[in-house]
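Hey,
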Amino acid sequence: MKALVYQNHAISLTERKKPEIISSRDAIVKVTLSSICTSDLHIIKGFVPRAKDGIVLGHEFVGEVVEIGSGITNLKIGDRVSANCETFCGECYFCKWGFINNCVNGGWELGCKIDGCQAEYVRVPFADTGLTKLPDNVTYENALFVGDILSSGYFGAEMCEIQQGDCVAVIGAGPVGLCSMACAKTFNAGKIIAIDIDDYRLNLALKLGIADYVLNSQKCDIEKEIKKLTENRGADSVIEAAGGKNTFETAWKIARPNAIVGVVAMYEENQILPLPEMYGKNLTFKTGGVDAVHCKKLVEMISKGIINTDFLITHTFQLDEIEKAYKFFETKSDNCLKTAIRY
């Protein structure tokens, strides 16, 4: 089969043996659509030390179950499924508490420590927990982002314990930030403020109705503008989805006292938490590593028309073009948000 392989900080489309069932809880999925994630770029650049050389990249995908292990009872051959970006057993201490990102038997495995989904077929360990069946009215395109960036957006909103009417500031209007805004809406946030440096993405958030106000941090004083929009208090909660050099600092500065700052971004450098400077502000910080435990719920929300992420697919490529797709995604060519790779 064709597969995109990571080796020595480079990628290449090559021939690989089709995966086989190893464990009783495995499934083999024929990939229908996959996508490229910023964390894939982080692996290539060397910012994910645990990533193994020689693996097939990718963890965002949907497809059809073509083979199942003897221990799988909730799936059958022919099922259309979306995949969780996390591999989790469902039985260890962390899984029982819902902290599946830290499953002692899994975590971020696919496309990092074991072969991922940017191939014609992928082996999914613990498939009974990691795959979600799709109802007839949910297409592969509808469900492509359920197991990663939509889950990350929901995770960010959930971390912030949003109350009805709250003002939520979201830093970063990329795919995860846009998903965070959409999810914050489902928590009945009263006012959502999108912050970015890309006017196209900010205007898209307005057009989609997932942001009420947009601020370009290169064109205004973000702290002052947030104060104007919040009766001089600051945001009730802040979702940091940008991962820029100064965005973590911005996050805690625009939060009101006693607010929650939820960090779903990945950083390429260590961040500073200046406790003396923020003393008395009494902030709560939560970070992730998404615990993507709501995939079934998110699929149901898509099925009912409560949430939609189709707009994120701005460009589609065939598997033979995946190296081109990587460059396209990394450079954000033609206002690219997310690519879909067809198999």
